[in-house]
Amino acid sequence: MFVIALLGTAVIAGAPSPEGLSVRGQFALATMFFAGLLWVTGAFPLAVTAISIPVLLTFFGVYDDLDAALVGFADHLIFLFIAGFMLANALQKYDIDRRIALWMMSAMGSSPRRLVLAVMLATAFLSMWVSNTATTAMMTPIALGVLTQVIGREGVEAASAAAEDIDSDVAADGAGATGVADAAGSDDFTNIQVSMLLGTAYGASVGGVGTLIGTPPNAVLASQLNKMLGYEIGFAQWLLIGLPIVAVTLPIVWYVLTYVLYPPQVEDVTDARAEAKRYLDEEGPLDPRGKRVAVIFTATAFLWVVGGLEDFIAPLLSDAWAVTLFGGSGASIFGIEGHQGLFYYVMVGLMSIPALVLADTMEWEELADIDWGTILLFGGGIALADALAATGATKWIADTVFSSLTGAPIALVVAVVVLLVIFLTEMTSNTATATIIVPILISIGGVFAATLGLTDVAAAVFLSVSGAIAASFAFALPVATPPNAIVFGSGYLEQKQMMRAGIVLNLLMTVVLTGFIWLLFQFVWPHILW
Question: N- or C-end of the chain: fewer Cβ atoms within 10 A?
């Protein structure tokens, strides 16, 4: 596959330049083909492919200096993700995430369907703050342990071990598990097993939409809007976008799983609920260091939200303090003109890391043990998107592919965007999909501005937000998302069961997202996005 990628890249780079596309833009497209094919096929680890992007861009002369090609790896949102991963490590070290999940399961799991709902809600909430890969890896053994009390203990330990032993690189890359640890025969798979495991994976994917740090596509969107349009989506702004999406789609996914496709065929889950309570009791009280981590996490999340309330808080402050806390071009309290703002969400995230060390809760080795592969993938994606935008290749793709939809109804435009992104995400990681498609959607804003009745910038924001959200709703294949790969590798799920649920939900979510995004666009987004 690597040879095919090289040959295809050479053909695209050496072909006559199409009308309207510069030579450098053509070379950027050749680089996109190389990276996209390797990302889709998984021939290389995704992070390794990402590292090759600045090399190819410099080799072709898209950039005349390697430093320029590497700028994407220093994007400020990459450091937000680094901070988020490190903060998540602290939560996991003291089992705070596990305690939250077990508490919700013991409090809500009074029936089979409510037990599945509790698992999905806990997974979705944690995925807003912790990577969906780590959340699913943590929740899958918990779900299997609770299932022991519903379907019996035989084989559950083996399946739980399989879930924990999935290769971390495969999980991080979303490349999927190539086999199943068949702890139980397929005839033994029960509906509650399937619905709970699929609910765990889907809850993680949907929950990640809720916050700006919940999943990389959200950050890819924020980064590209900032670079291409100078438009900033803050943490609080994204909550007003993401939380309604989660609140609407998660119950629908739960209902389809437990009432339509895989209704639980058991009645009594008293023992399962008691098992979750027993697990929680075994955790014991949170020690002082864990309490300090909880305080730091809560304060960080609070400041992320406060940073988006500038319009309400800044008028109550002096000009100097408003600039110091929220940023601006005026003089800060330090007497310097211009300031980023201490409440800027990336600043807040980075400040949480020394706070963890000062509170004597984490060692550097523990903080540094994060998913660097995702960080590199994110950086390579930004580098590629920057090159496509800078050379005009993104606009050329947008005009070539989407010009036929000019003048189409708004609902049709959004439906095409959502369905296209979901389909692409089924074949490659949602980060890679967002990296390629979001800049294109930003570029076609001007084409559809008149159709949408918006300014060029507002149309670009609307379409790209729609695409970024859709990147988290690929449910059919193990390769689509890391959560899908993890639960598939547990050994208690067959691919045909995931495909059955995924195809139904993909089509349903296309309709739901199209309608709900349109409603948000009509009544909510005009007040928060433009």
Answer: N
